[in-house]
Please model this.
Amino acid sequence: MKIVFLSDTHNKHLSCPIPEGDIIIHCGDVSSRGREYEITEFAEWYGSLDFKHKILIPGNHDFLFEKNEDLARSICEEMGIVVLIDQLYELEGIKIWGSPIQPWFWNWAFNRRRGEEILEHWKKIPEGVDVLVTHGPPSSIGHLSMVVGGEEVGCKDLFNEITQRIKPKINAFGHIHEGYGSLEKDGILFLNCSFLNRSYVPNNKPFVVRYEESKFSLDF
Model:
Protein backbone atom coordinates (compact mmCIF):
# COMPACT_ATOMS: atom_id res chain seq x y z
CA MET A 1 0.00 0.00 0.00
CA LYS A 2 1.21 3.52 -0.81
CA ILE A 3 0.38 6.71 1.10
CA VAL A 4 0.94 10.08 -0.58
CA PHE A 5 1.60 13.10 1.65
CA LEU A 6 1.46 16.75 0.55
CA SER A 7 0.85 20.13 2.12
CA ASP A 8 0.67 23.88 1.53
CA THR A 9 -0.64 23.95 -2.03
CA HIS A 10 -2.27 27.39 -1.50
CA ASN A 11 -4.60 27.31 -4.54
CA LYS A 12 -1.81 25.98 -6.76
CA HIS A 13 -2.88 22.35 -6.50
CA LEU A 14 -3.26 22.00 -10.27
CA SER A 15 0.53 22.40 -10.57
CA CYS A 16 1.24 19.63 -8.10
CA PRO A 17 2.40 16.32 -9.61
CA ILE A 18 0.43 13.62 -7.83
CA PRO A 19 2.02 10.16 -7.79
CA GLU A 20 -0.04 7.00 -7.72
CA GLY A 21 -1.15 5.60 -4.39
CA ASP A 22 -3.94 4.21 -2.28
CA ILE A 23 -4.28 6.90 0.39
CA ILE A 24 -3.61 10.63 0.00
CA ILE A 25 -3.19 12.94 2.99
CA HIS A 26 -3.06 16.74 2.76
CA CYS A 27 -1.50 18.46 5.78
CA GLY A 28 -3.28 21.81 5.37
CA ASP A 29 -3.16 25.24 3.71
CA VAL A 30 -5.12 24.32 0.62
CA SER A 31 -6.10 27.97 0.16
CA SER A 32 -4.91 31.55 0.46
CA ARG A 33 -7.54 32.95 2.84
CA GLY A 34 -9.94 30.06 3.33
CA ARG A 35 -12.75 31.56 1.28
CA GLU A 36 -15.66 29.30 0.40
CA TYR A 37 -14.88 29.30 -3.32
CA GLU A 38 -11.25 28.38 -2.61
CA ILE A 39 -12.25 25.41 -0.47
CA THR A 40 -14.82 24.34 -3.06
CA GLU A 41 -12.34 24.48 -5.94
CA PHE A 42 -9.79 22.51 -3.97
CA ALA A 43 -12.33 19.90 -2.85
CA GLU A 44 -13.52 19.35 -6.42
CA TRP A 45 -9.94 18.70 -7.53
CA TYR A 46 -8.92 16.63 -4.49
CA GLY A 47 -12.11 14.59 -4.63
CA SER A 48 -11.49 13.75 -8.28
CA LEU A 49 -8.09 12.16 -7.63
CA ASP A 50 -7.83 8.41 -8.11
CA PHE A 51 -7.27 7.34 -4.51
CA LYS A 52 -9.26 4.94 -2.37
CA HIS A 53 -9.04 7.26 0.65
CA LYS A 54 -8.60 11.06 0.73
CA ILE A 55 -7.82 12.78 4.03
CA LEU A 56 -7.42 16.46 4.79
CA ILE A 57 -6.59 18.61 7.78
CA PRO A 58 -6.98 22.40 7.48
CA GLY A 59 -4.10 24.82 7.92
CA ASN A 60 -3.71 28.31 9.27
CA HIS A 61 -4.79 29.84 5.93
CA ASP A 62 -7.98 27.75 5.72
CA PHE A 63 -10.23 30.06 7.73
CA LEU A 64 -13.56 28.58 6.60
CA PHE A 65 -12.89 25.42 8.61
CA GLU A 66 -12.59 27.52 11.76
CA LYS A 67 -15.31 30.08 11.05
CA ASN A 68 -17.91 27.68 9.63
CA GLU A 69 -16.75 24.13 10.19
CA ASP A 70 -20.07 22.56 9.21
CA LEU A 71 -20.04 24.25 5.80
CA ALA A 72 -16.40 23.45 5.13
CA ARG A 73 -16.90 19.81 6.14
CA SER A 74 -19.99 19.44 3.96
CA ILE A 75 -18.12 20.81 0.91
CA CYS A 76 -15.39 18.22 1.43
CA GLU A 77 -17.57 15.30 2.43
CA GLU A 78 -19.66 15.70 -0.71
CA MET A 79 -16.46 14.95 -2.62
CA GLY A 80 -15.58 11.93 -0.49
CA ILE A 81 -12.92 13.73 1.56
CA VAL A 82 -12.40 12.93 5.24
CA VAL A 83 -11.65 16.05 7.30
CA LEU A 84 -9.81 15.61 10.59
CA ILE A 85 -9.84 18.34 13.24
CA ASP A 86 -8.40 16.84 16.43
CA GLN A 87 -9.83 13.48 15.40
CA LEU A 88 -8.82 9.85 14.94
CA TYR A 89 -9.54 7.95 11.75
CA GLU A 90 -8.70 4.31 11.17
CA LEU A 91 -8.46 2.66 7.77
CA GLU A 92 -6.73 -0.37 6.35
CA GLY A 93 -5.41 -1.11 9.85
CA ILE A 94 -3.69 2.29 10.10
CA LYS A 95 -4.58 4.72 12.89
CA ILE A 96 -4.39 8.34 11.74
CA TRP A 97 -4.80 11.43 13.91
CA GLY A 98 -5.18 14.85 12.35
CA SER A 99 -4.90 18.30 13.93
CA PRO A 100 -4.72 21.76 12.33
CA ILE A 101 -3.49 23.39 15.54
CA GLN A 102 -0.19 25.27 15.59
CA PRO A 103 1.53 27.82 17.86
CA TRP A 104 0.34 31.41 17.54
CA PHE A 105 1.45 32.69 14.14
CA TRP A 106 0.33 36.20 13.14
CA ASN A 107 -3.27 35.61 14.28
CA TRP A 108 -4.14 33.08 11.59
CA ALA A 109 -6.62 30.19 11.86
CA PHE A 110 -6.21 27.45 14.46
CA ASN A 111 -3.60 29.43 16.41
CA ARG A 112 -3.08 28.57 20.07
CA ARG A 113 -0.79 30.09 22.68
CA ARG A 114 2.26 28.05 23.61
CA GLY A 115 2.02 26.24 26.91
CA GLU A 116 -1.16 24.92 28.49
CA GLU A 117 -3.48 26.21 25.75
CA ILE A 118 -1.81 24.27 22.94
CA LEU A 119 -0.89 21.33 25.16
CA GLU A 120 -4.60 20.63 25.68
CA HIS A 121 -4.81 19.66 22.01
CA TRP A 122 -1.74 17.44 22.05
CA LYS A 123 -3.00 15.63 25.15
CA LYS A 124 -6.04 14.52 23.13
CA ILE A 125 -3.84 12.44 20.83
CA PRO A 126 -3.99 8.81 21.95
CA GLU A 127 -1.04 6.49 22.17
CA GLY A 128 -0.94 3.88 19.43
CA VAL A 129 -1.42 6.36 16.58
CA ASP A 130 0.53 5.23 13.50
CA VAL A 131 0.37 8.42 11.44
CA LEU A 132 0.18 11.80 13.14
CA VAL A 133 -0.80 14.60 10.76
CA THR A 134 -0.31 18.13 12.07
CA HIS A 135 -0.26 21.34 10.10
CA GLY A 136 2.64 22.79 12.06
CA PRO A 137 5.88 20.98 12.88
CA PRO A 138 7.23 19.94 16.24
CA SER A 139 10.44 21.64 17.30
CA SER A 140 13.90 20.09 17.62
CA ILE A 141 13.95 18.37 14.23
CA GLY A 142 16.52 20.56 12.53
CA HIS A 143 15.76 22.09 9.15
CA LEU A 144 12.21 20.64 9.03
CA SER A 145 10.86 23.00 11.70
CA MET A 146 13.16 25.98 11.09
CA VAL A 147 13.88 29.16 12.95
CA VAL A 148 12.13 32.17 11.39
CA GLY A 149 13.05 35.69 12.49
CA GLY A 150 15.17 34.25 15.28
CA GLU A 151 12.21 32.32 16.72
CA GLU A 152 11.71 28.56 16.72
CA VAL A 153 8.50 28.05 14.75
CA GLY A 154 7.96 24.43 15.72
CA CYS A 155 6.15 23.39 18.88
CA LYS A 156 8.25 22.07 21.76
CA ASP A 157 5.21 20.64 23.55
CA LEU A 158 4.26 18.69 20.43
CA PHE A 159 7.78 17.32 20.12
CA ASN A 160 7.76 16.18 23.74
CA GLU A 161 4.39 14.47 23.37
CA ILE A 162 5.47 12.77 20.14
CA THR A 163 8.79 11.45 21.40
CA GLN A 164 7.86 10.67 25.01
CA ARG A 165 4.26 9.45 24.85
CA ILE A 166 2.58 9.12 21.44
CA LYS A 167 5.52 7.68 19.48
CA PRO A 168 3.87 7.48 16.05
CA LYS A 169 5.58 5.87 13.09
CA ILE A 170 5.14 9.05 11.04
CA ASN A 171 4.58 12.73 11.79
CA ALA A 172 3.64 14.59 8.58
CA PHE A 173 3.17 18.35 8.46
CA GLY A 174 3.83 21.50 6.42
CA HIS A 175 3.35 25.17 7.38
CA ILE A 176 7.04 26.14 7.14
CA HIS A 177 7.66 26.00 3.39
CA GLU A 178 11.44 26.31 3.50
CA GLY A 179 11.61 23.32 5.85
CA TYR A 180 10.61 20.79 3.17
CA GLY A 181 12.28 17.43 3.61
CA SER A 182 12.39 14.21 5.61
CA LEU A 183 14.24 13.13 8.72
CA GLU A 184 14.14 10.00 10.85
CA LYS A 185 14.66 10.57 14.56
CA ASP A 186 14.00 8.33 17.55
CA GLY A 187 12.38 5.77 15.24
CA ILE A 188 9.89 8.33 13.90
CA LEU A 189 9.78 9.49 10.28
CA PHE A 190 9.21 13.27 10.19
CA LEU A 191 7.99 14.72 6.88
CA ASN A 192 7.68 18.40 6.02
CA CYS A 193 5.47 18.06 2.94
CA SER A 194 5.24 21.71 1.83
CA PHE A 195 4.66 21.91 -1.93
CA LEU A 196 5.47 25.61 -2.30
CA ASN A 197 8.77 27.18 -1.34
CA ARG A 198 9.21 30.29 0.78
CA SER A 199 8.33 32.49 -2.23
CA TYR A 200 5.10 30.51 -2.80
CA VAL A 201 6.49 28.98 -5.98
CA PRO A 202 5.72 25.30 -6.73
CA ASN A 203 9.00 23.61 -5.95
CA ASN A 204 8.64 20.30 -4.11
CA LYS A 205 7.16 16.87 -4.73
CA PRO A 206 4.76 14.97 -2.47
CA PHE A 207 6.23 12.18 -0.37
CA VAL A 208 5.25 8.58 -0.99
CA VAL A 209 5.38 6.15 1.92
CA ARG A 210 5.03 2.42 1.45
CA TYR A 211 3.14 0.43 4.10
CA GLU A 212 3.91 -3.29 4.17
CA GLU A 213 3.70 -5.84 6.98
CA SER A 214 2.91 -3.10 9.52
CA LYS A 215 6.02 -1.14 8.55
CA PHE A 216 6.34 2.29 6.92
CA SER A 217 9.18 3.30 4.62
CA LEU A 218 9.84 6.13 2.18
CA ASP A 219 9.31 5.01 -1.40
CA PHE A 220 11.97 6.77 -3.47
The radius of gyration is 16 Å.
